[in-house]
Amino acid sequence: MISYAVDTDGIATLTWDLPDRPVNVLSMDSRLKFVSLIETAIADPAVRGILITSAKKEFIAGADLTLLASFRGAPAAEITGKMNALRDVLRKMETSGKPVVAAMNGTALGGGLEICLGCHRRIAADRPDAVFGLPEVGLGLLPGAGGTQRLPRLIGIKAALPLLLEGKKLSAQKAKDAGIIDELVPADQLIDAARAWLLSNPNASQPWDRPGYVPPGGPATSPELHRLFMAQGAKTQAETRDNFPAPAAILSAVYEGLRAPIEVGLDIEFRLLAELVRGDVAQNTIRTMFFSMNDIRKLSARPQDVPTFQIDKLGVLGAGTMGAGLAQVAAQNGMTVVLLDRSTEAAGAGLDRIAKTLAKDVEKGRISADKRDQVMARILATDDYAALAGCQAVVEAVFEDRAIKDDVTKKTLAVTGSDILFASNTSKIPISGLAQSSDRPDRFIGMHFFSPVPRMALLEIIRGKETSDETLAQALDLSKMLGKTPIVVNDGPGFFTSRCVSTYLNEGIAMLREGVAAALIENCGKHAGMPVGPLSLADEIGIDVMYKVRVQEGQDRGFTGPEFPVVELLHNEFSRMGRKSGGGFYDYPADSAKSLWTRLGELFPQAEQQPDPALLRRRFLHVQALEAARCFGEGIIDDPRQADVGSILGWGYAKHTGGVCSYMDTVGIARFVAECEAMAKEYGDRYAPPEFLKAMARENRSFYA
């Protein structure tokens, strides 16, 4: 686990190498072993210096999140008893009078970097792929082994706060430039350089343990840093909307800790960590954004008895925004792509769109000009279906019209044969019906990409009634080749993501009809944790798109929804189609920021008594989660991990909740059902909980055991 050896020069070398782990992590066993070995080295009079390194490619990746996940709701005393030994031994190590060096052979993150910060010297292998940082904030935590205390003391408060609050990861060179790494050396010289430093510095100490020490940039009590804390506190509150406690806790740890001796600062940090790690925000975030995300990316839903599918040539039907984005991603991942549209001009316009996107990437240094040229060379833009010959898979991304989709599907399969993997990128139209355009509906599947395709990680894979296991497995293989995070759902109108996000839009527009002020609706949507307000999102999607979808749904199943009259009014009476037309719920002047349309108050008069913002926030979160529960009851989705990841990545459901299922579990299923029933009496049947959820409440079940 961690080997220990003392050489003839008196250097004790601790080498991390956790068995059965691809990377070193701070598991409970490894923590205790490290603590024991450090205490052994300190107590041994023959040891003149301590060298800490790794036998794996990377140094230490951070905490074992399995350990942290076990602390949900645990008493603070239990967490302290299990975790404070590492904090204490690092302080003992840096004040032992013996020099300690971290020989960082690769990436050091989180607790791994905190161990390095507790060393007197940090020497790293000069590897371009190694990264260094304290990313705990992304999981709802703070660095709890001294990171909030040592980093600001080492590089200054002003430089440390962005790294702590944003969880930035730095390259080796940038970490050296920041003052985190003291020395970069070739990898084959790392241990020799570390040994040489230990032998030359027998009386090493930390800067903050020397008399008269002042952190770079001045003490925390300086007027300039006081203003910095005030400004950063306001910024943090505006960005988190009080939904994420970790950034505020980090600010508090630095502000209070840097005004006191480091021992006091370490106690403050650990107290704040214990509160965070036992709380729902951190626990739900860890479960969804780490464990569930990793399971999904490993294709846990893939049928196991199907050979891995390799795609060299991909056909993309439709060169609009979605098709062009998909073609770009496929080409960037090494595939040859045939980008087909109804005319050479339309196909060429899609290719031009890709070229402009890649040009911006070159300009910003994301890719090289050579890489851009290689990507462009892999894409053939054409209107000739014959060019699709030899494609192992085709993704249709044309307009959401059944007749058009039927036409391009039949023309494609006439060239490729119907045994290829054929996918439709549709967000609403049932896959089982579209599959009837093929004489092999078992080879037909839905692959719902999100816009913009190059940036959006989620891919919603929709299994039709006749879709085979082989087709599902191959679609998942394709998603992996494209670098996407795939969730698998079953067929049904709206599938999962489109159906759930529609409730957010609907509820915002329903509130407008109730007389709730538009600004209050928008602000409460954002304060609930959504990326934008529902009216703003409607404008981004397009009022015309929403109108056409509602007309189609009306034809399909007689559904209009509470928002239809409003959408119809904006579409038919005022020709306000959203941002693209310069006006929807908002006005979009060319020379100033957008603002709510002034006539909204006239068309939808505000009630004299406005509702409590907390009620509106609860309505927004409940109505979306409730629709997800209906999807479970109807068999559209059956895995809470997929639902939670899909809700956060797909439509931006409030990340601090951990996703729709985690949200319902956190509220408590029985309480959630009762609150929905109360809102159904007040606002309508759209809040009526399904029998599936009521049964869970009666049986005291939850989505996660």
Mean pLDDT: 94
Binned, the helix content reads: 40-55%
Strand elements, count:
19
Continuous helix count: 29
| Category from helices, strands and their pairing | alpha/beta
Largest sheet properties:
8 strands, mixed
CATH topology annotation of the largest domain: 2-enoyl-CoA Hydratase, Chain A, domain 1
Q: What is the CATH C-level name of the largest domain?
A: Alpha Beta
Distance between the termini: 32 Å
- The CATH homologous superfamily of the largest domain is called 2-enoyl-CoA Hydratase, Chain A, domain 1
Beta-strand residue percentage? 5-15%
3D shape: globular
Contiguous uncertain segments of 5+ residues: none
The CATH architecture designation of the largest domain is Alpha-Beta Complex
Major sheet: order of its strands? Answer: 12-11-10-13-14-15-16-17
How many domains would you count in the coordinates? Answer: 3
Q: Kindly provide the radius of gyration, computed on alpha-carbon positions and rounded to a whole number of angstroms.
A: 28 Å
